[in-house]
Specification:
By secondary structure, the chain is an alpha+beta fold. It has helices at residues 43-55, 57-66, 69-95, 99-104, 106-129; strands at 2-4, 11-14, 17-21, 27-29. The radius of gyration is 23 Å and the shape is elongated. The two termini are 42 Å apart.
Length: 131
């Protein structure tokens, strides 16, 4: 069922989908993200997106076409950062990296913290992003 919305046929509605006439005389679906789902995506969200595109393309397309991709990537990103922060705190405690060490030997503290953060991020990537 085709319904003409404007007299000059710049917009048509077919099967409940609105199509807009582009500059190249081709009709394109008028797709927009649902309101309230335009989140900023961080490092882990972008990594997950690339993984889905390459290895889980069907699931990626399902999320994209349903308008849930941005929200899904935001949730993954938030979960990854929370997991990383928890792991960093546990590793700091086990390795004795304290504020006292920071005050006494700043370079040693920085080196240990960089190592801890790198290890925590590697765990997060392997456990959450690439599954």
């Amino acid at each position: 069922m085709r319904k003409i919305v404007e007299r000059w046929i710049k917009v048509i509605v077919e099967n409940g989908i609105t199509y807009v006439l582009g500059d190249d005389d081709i009709y394109y679906p008028d797709l927009q993200l649902p309101e309230g789902t335009n989140y900023n995506i961080g490092k882990f969200g972008h990594m997950r997106c690339e993984y889905l595109k390459e290895f889980k393309h069907g699931y990626y397309m399902e999320l994209l076409l349903d308008g849930r991709l941005n929200e899904y990537l935001h949730e993954i990103d938030e979960a990854c950062y929370e997991m990383r922060d928890r792991l960093v705190e546990k590793m700091k405690e086990k390795q004795g990296v304290t504020e006292q060490l920071k005050a006494e030997n700043q370079m040693l503290w920085v080196g240990k913290m960089n190592n801890i953060i790198a290890c925590a991020e590697e765990v997060v990537v392997m456990e959450v992003v690439y599954v």
